[in-house]
Amino acid sequence: MGTQGKLNDGSTSIWQKFGPLFALLLLFIVIAALNPSFLEPLNIMNLLRQTSINALIAFGMTFIILTGGIDLSVGSILALSSALMAGMMVSGMDPILAILVGVLLGTLMGVLNGLLITKGKMAPFIATLATMTIYRGLTLVYTEGKPVTGLGDSELFQMLGRGYFFGIPVPVVIMIIAFFVLWFLLHKMSFGRKTYAIGGNEKSSRISGIKVDRVKIMIYGIAGTMAALAGAILTSRLNSAQPTAGQAYEMDAIAAVVLGGTSLSGGKGRLFGTLIGVLIIGTLNNGLNLLGVSSFYQQVVKGVVIIVAVLLDRKKS
Amino acid sequence: MKIEMRDIYKAFGQNKVLEGVDFDLEPGEVHALMGENGAGKSTLMNILTGLHKQDKGTVKINGVETVFKNSLEAERSGLAFIRQELNIWPEMTVLENLFIGRELTNAFGVLKTKEMQKIASDIFKTLNISLPFDKEAGFCSVGEQQMIEIAKALMTDAEVIIMDEPTAALTDREIEKLFEIMKELTAKGVSLVYISHRMEEIFAICDRITVMRDGKTVDTTPIPETSFEEVVKKMVGRELEDRFPHREAKPGETVLEIKELSRKGVFNYVNMSVRRGEILGVAGLMGAGRTEIMRALFGVDQADSGEVFIEGKKVSIRQPIDAVKHGLAFITENRKDEGLILDFSVRENIGLPNLGSFAPNGIVKANEEKQFVEMMVKRLSVKTASPETIIGNLSGGNQQKVVIAKWIGTSPKVLIMDEPTRGIDVGAKREIYELMNELTERGLAIIMVSSELPEVLGMSDRILVIHEGKIAGELGRQEATQEKIMALATGGN
Ligand SMILES: Nc1ncnc2c1ncn2[C@@H]1O[C@H](COP(=O)(O)OP(=O)(O)OP(=O)(O)O)[C@@H](O)[C@H]1O
Ligand SMILES: [Mg+2]
Asked: ABC transporter domain: which residues (chain B) (predicted)?
């Protein structure tokens, strides 16, 4: 009666697994061929550091998209938590404590998104579209539209955005740690399994005894935390909080997640893919700058790359 | 229409599913197609109707070699297919579902709703069903959804209708009506392919039977020249013991008690209780409210009033997680929408309600999970290439086995089974019955909702019959007969 042989169930094709990685390598080779200085360690470190902010946001976004949701408010969460941190520092709070509180406030903003979506039964797109403008508006109110400066000269705080750890920029170290922690959460813990389950079939998940609402609220909380963490790095890097910081960052994050092969309808995708997606976008930004392509054209190229990647992804079926 | 399929081969990747199948269909006959779960019946019909393409072999229609490019082309050529996995658009209404893809419109593309309603109400009348046209299909029971699919196929004026387990979720009343219609159709020269695991039906309605085993045709015989035993032997390759295992119940104290449970317009003042080690059968007609009571009990839907006691303590169940915490498990009738996550592997599906035990501190113990899954796959003889196979690629019956497997591991106190053997072959059914015996011996209580009367009679210690949302009566194992159940179910006594 038994079935013989191994079945190719077609769930993960070669492209799905390695396609984004190939694309990244190809991009590397092409840019390096056109401008060898691209490969200089200093530039690579630069590239990684520029990538780290988008990476943190995109990691959180991956969880959300896996459940079939979306979060448009991450850029605003970044800005608001950054402004609050800076404000606390200016008023004399210990910088590290201010950062901790600021990140925690970011978590709360994410949790509020989650509550609106689950308890308020709002579509994620609508709920986070609303909170996007609310959080941005609050940032503008709080900062009166002006940058918050004079954050003191705590060395630890300066390190966060500008320091090095064994020659590696601290933001990159944070990105790597965040990747491993979230990778473990998604792929080795029951929390991750539940995330995929909800994206695959919410009704079945509920009946299987998964606390769907709670998992979702936590996921939006994670996304808020990651955005605020990115905000902390940015604040340190600029040594100030900018009221317009993080604008359109949600778009780069969503693009990275999709480039990494995660399906916008939920249930399918991997965190490693997002890491590659983030690097593709970072490489494009950095490479096109090096090659002297005008920033107007850069936008066009980025859009074209997304379309090509998604088309290739489609082809597998 | 005359169909000849010769020497058909089909593999999905490395998995050889069909290896030289022959199948013929004569005009005006009802041709049964039988075989174990995963034998390749649905695949064969998918090839005939253009969903899959065979690797080798020919299909001739009225003597002409034919390859349909897709299902639509097959449908236009007069082949209708009522699929095993129902194709319902849950957010659309009953009427919209009936006409999906072939809506009637006027010259400007405006829908002719009146006309469609007229056609639909005619077909519903022939089928003897009453379903409001504007009801969202997702709120219909599986049986009702099945009737929508049947109605859809009947509306196409097809010359060939393939029915893949059309009755798995229907009760006797609808089946009788369906058979009447089938007879009328064949009298008009329509040919029918009838796939089912319900033996009685095959012998009641079919003219010829083709048995498949492991991707090959065993043979084709006229029904009068064969018997239950012979067919089963051809299917599984050995003699099978009785269909139902011997059952000796030793019911203990009451574990679950429901008092005056009501949901407006669905069911009223339902009282029931079940004891440790007992199998409580729940029978009734389609739409009587059997499933709805179970859903409310498990917290999928909310009851308006009533009380639930578990081991004598009053509990509040407002969502499924509460039910799971109190030791209930629920095998839903609708595996595709509510039982499984189709993109997940067999392992992940079985693991899902058991994460609490495989991941006590949140980290999944991959080895323990794997071992448990392998054990369950073996125990229920799930035919799958590996535990890592995506569940959507399994045959219907094998998917159903996985739904059962996933709940057994949670060691519940009360197991609610809604149409537990829907689409499962005779051999595997017995294994599931044995499993039920074993579980009740260990003190588990089972509530089994089933439309298959032989199953209700064969396995239940006590039978509750539901009629229009109320309990119409209770029958003990000894006194219960098919006639008594039907009498109660239809409102007589
Ligand atoms: N799309 C697919 N991809 C991979 N394997 C498939 C696919 N469809 C079917 N199979 C495999 O083909 C085999 C036969 O499946 P099929 O659905 O034809 O069985 P069946 O005879 O209809 O069984 P059942 O009685 O359970 O409905 C199974 O082992 C199944 O796993
Ligand atoms: Mg089948």
From this structure: 3-239, 250-493
